[in-house]
Amino acid sequence: MSLPVTPKVPFGGDYNPEQWPEPVWGDDYRLFDLAGIDTVTLGVFDWALTQPAPEVYDFALLDRIVERATAQGRMICLATGTGAHPAWLARAHPEVTRVDFEGRRHRFGQRHNSCPSSPVFRRLSAELARRVAGRYADKRSVVAWHVGNEYGGACYCELCAAGFRDWLRERYRTLAALNTAWYTTFWSHTFTDWDEIEPPSALTEHWRGPDHTAFQGITLDYRRFMSEAMLANFRDEKAAIRESSELPVTTNFMGMYRPIDYHRWAEQLDFVSWDNYPPDDSSPHWAALSHDLMRGLKGGQPFWLMEQTPSMTACRDVNQLKRPRVMRLWSWQAVAHGADAVLFFQLRASRGACEKYHGAVIGHAGRADTRVFREVAELGAELGRLGGATLGARTPARVALLFDWDSWWALEISDGPSRLVRYQQVLLAYYRALWEAGVDVDVVAVDADLSGYQVVVAPALHMVKGDLAERLAGVAERGGSVLTTFLSGRVDVDGNAFLMDVPGPLGPLLGVRVDEWDAREADVVNPVCLGEGADRVEVAARLVFELVIAEGAEVVGSYQADFYAGTPAVTRHAYGAGHGWYVGTALDQPGVSWVVRQVLDHHGLTGPYPDLPGLETTVRVTGDGTRLRFLLNHDAEPVQVTATVGGVDLLTGARVEPGEPLRLDGHGVRVVREE
Q1: Given CA atoms 44, 49, 53, 54 in this order, what sign does their dihedral have?
Q2: Is residue 443 over pLDDT 80?
C-alpha cells in the first residue's frame, strides 16, 4: 500500500462544518471553488458526535457532511474521530485518562489525555474506527483514512506500569539481562521481581524534571515503550479499518517531535503525513530538514503535508504572521522536498475555544477579498496548472544525514558533559550547511541502507547500535566520506558507555581517541583555526571541547586557547578509498559550514548556486526520469542567477534557456522541468 491515488496534488485541509450551522456550508464550498480547494479532511474530532453515549452511534451529521463534500466533487481524507475521547467515556471509565509525570490522575479535558494502555480506550477507539470505515468505505470521494491526531505525550498510570513490565519481559526475557542493561548494581537498584519495576517519573528516578534521571536505561526504555504503546493504538484502528477498506491509512506526524520515534512507526503507515509549524519565520532550513526526515521515513516515498497554517498559529506566546508570499513559498518548499499534497489547518476559522485565532483560509467573516484568501487562491491555481507533474517523484540524494531518536533521548537525559547541548540544534547546524550548499539530502534512520550515498553526515551520534559502525566504515572503504561530531560513539543500545576509547566502535574509522572533555557555559568561546596557509580561517567553538588525540588522522583544525591550545579540534582520517571526519567541538555555523563544504567539494556535490544561501534548490525525478528543478528564494529581495540547464517553468509556461539570466522575485518560486 502506498500513497492515495489522486489526479493532482491534493489541495485543501482540515474542515470542521460540524462547528457551525449548515447554511454556512454553501458559502464554504463557493469559496472553496474560488480557491481551487479540492480536498477536505473530515471528522478528526467527531467522537462525541458520532458516539454520544456508550451504546449509541449516530452518524446522521457526519453523513450529511460526507454527502455534501462528495456532491461538491471533493476528495476526502476521512478521520476515525479518535483524536480526543468524549466526556462520557472519562466519567464512565476514569482509567482512560492519563496519569502525568508528577503522579496526578487527570480528569476529562484537553485532547492528549487518553491512556494508550487502557483496554477500554483501545476497544472503543478501534470500534469507532471499524464503524466509520464500514460506513464510508464505498464512497468514491474517500481517498485516505486518517487515524487519531498528532499522537504524543506520555502516561504513568498503573495500566502503563503493567504494560511496561510486559514490554520489558518481551525485550529482556530475564531479570538478569534487564539488570545488566540498566546497570542496577549502581545505588543498590537490582530488581529481583518484575513487579518491583516502576515507570520512571518525578516520584521515582527523576528529581529535576523529565530529562534528569538517575538511571538512563529505564528512562530510555520507558520512552521506547510509550512510543510503541501509542503505536499499538494506531495499529488497533488500522486493523479495524482493514476489515472493510484497502484505502491508504495514515496519521499526522509532527516532524522533529521528540516523544515519538517515527522510525519505529513508519512501517505501519501506508504513507507519511505531517504538520509543518516552524518555530519562526526565519528558519527555512528547519522546515527543509523536517520535510526530508518525513520523506526518509519510508525510504524516500513522497508524503502529505497534512497541516500548515495559511497565516499564523494560535498555540504560542507570540504568534507571528506569515509575510506576503511566504505561505506560497513554504508550500512549494514542501513540494520541493517530497510533498504530494498541500493541506491547511484550518479551512474555516473556529468561532470559539483555543484555536479561534488560529489562521484559516476563510476567516470568521467569510470574505474572499482578504490577503490570505487571495494568496491561497493563487496557490490553488498554480497547483491546478501543475496537475500531476510531481506526483510520485523521488529525490536523487547522494548525501545522507542520520537522525536517531535513541541518540536524541540518550544524549539529553545524560548527566554530563553538558546539558546545554541539544541534539536537534546540532543536527540543524550540519543540515543547514548542506542546505545552503544546495545539496539534496536524505534524512534516514541509523539502520537504513547506506550503500547509495557518497557522503554520510552523523552529528551527535551518541548511541551506536548493531552493525552501524561497520556500515559507516563501509561507506568510507568504497570511497565515500563519513562526518561525525563530538559526543558520538559514547554509548551502546542500553545507554551504557563502551569499555573502549571514545569514540567507541567509530574509533578505527575516525583515527582518533578522546581521553578528556571540557564543558563551559554558552558565553565561553575557544577559537578554532581551520585549514592552512591562505585558506586558514578562525571560527568559534562553544559548550563542549573534546581533547582529541590523532591516531592516524590528519589535523584539519586546532584549538587556540586554554591548556589544550594547539591540539586537534577537527580531523580527517584516510580509511580505505575514503575518509572519516571528526569534529570534536560545537563549532559556530561558519565553522560547521566550512567543514561540510570541504567534504562536499571533495565529491563534487555542491548545488548550482552554493554561494547564495537564501536560494534553495532541490530536484525531484519522476518515474519516467524527468527531472524537476525547484528554485526557492527565501529572501525578501529579488535574486538573479544564470540558468545551468534549459527547460520549461511549470508555473508560468515560460522557457528557460541555459546560460540566460533567471530571475526570482522576493520569496519567488520556479519549478523547471529540465530538458
Answers
A1: negative
A2: yes
By annotation, the residues acting in catalysis are 150, 307
What residue spans in the chain does CATH classification 3.40.50.880 cover? 399-603
Burial of residue 210, with CB atoms counted within 10 A of its CB: 0-12 exposed, 13-18 middle, 19 or more buried = middle
- Residue 160 annotated as lining a ligand binding site: yes
What is the chain's mean pLDDT, rounded? 97
User: Is pLDDT above 70 for 197?
Assistant: yes
pTM: 0.97
CA–CA separation, 132 vs 109, rounded Å?
24
Report, at the CATH architecture level, how domain 399-603 is classified: 3-Layer(aba) Sandwich (3.40)
Q: Rounded distance, CA 412 to CA 647, Å?
A: 47
In this prediction, residue 1 carries a pLDDT of 61
- Cell representation of residue 445: 534512520
Q: Where are the beta strands (DSSP E) in 388-437?
A: 399-402
Fold type of domain 615-674: Immunoglobulin-like (2.60.40)
Residue 111 pLDDT more than 70? Answer: yes
Assigned C-alpha cell, 510: 575516525
Percent helix, percent strand, percent coil in the chain, to nearest 5: 35, 20, 45
pLDDT (mean) for 477-505? 98
Residue 111 known to bind ligand: yes
For the chain, residues classed under CATH 2.60.40.1180 are 615-674
How far, in whole angstroms, is CA 413 from its chain's centroid? 20
**402: closest CA among 439, 447, 336?**
447
Q: Is residue 354 part of an annotated ligand binding site? A: no
The helix (H) or strand (E) run that includes residue 146 is strand 142-146
**Whose CA is closest to 25, among 71, 57, 81, 79?**
71
115 is in an annotated binding site: yes
Residue scoring higher pLDDT (283 or 362): 362
Note the pLDDT tens digit of each residue in 589-619: 999 999 999 999 999 999 999 989 899 999 9
What's the sign of the alpha-carbon dihedral 346, 637, 597, 452? positive
Does position 436 have pLDDT exceeding 80, yes or no? yes
Task: Give kind and range of the element (H or E) at residue 372.
Answer: helix 371-386
Pairing outcome for strands 647-649 and 669-674: antiparallel
Contact 215, 189 (CB under 8 A): yes
Residue 196: how many CB atoms within 10 A of its CB? 11
pLDDT of res. 79 = 98
**Tens of pLDDT along 138-175?**
999 999 999 999 999 999 999 999 999 999 999 999 99
Going by C-alpha positions, the residue among 465, 512, 516 that lies closest to residue 484 is 512
- How far apart are alpha carbons 204 and 103 in whole angstroms? 10
Return the CA Rg of the chain. Answer: 26
Q: Which pLDDT value is given to residue 207?
A: 84
AA letter at 397: A
Dihedral angle of Cα 176, 179, 185, 191, to the nearest 10 degrees: -90
Is residue 336 scored above 80 in pLDDT? yes
Is residue 103 left, alpha or beta, with left meaning phi > 0 and alpha meaning psi from -120 to 50? left
CB atoms within 10 A of CB 171: 13
pLDDT digits (tens, 9 = 90+) for 252-303: 999 999 999 999 999 999 999 999 999 988 889 999 999 999 999 999 999 9
DSSP 561-630: SSTTTTSEEEEEEEETTEEEEEE-EEE-HHHHHHHHHHHHHHHT---S-TT-TTEEEEEEE-TT--EEEE
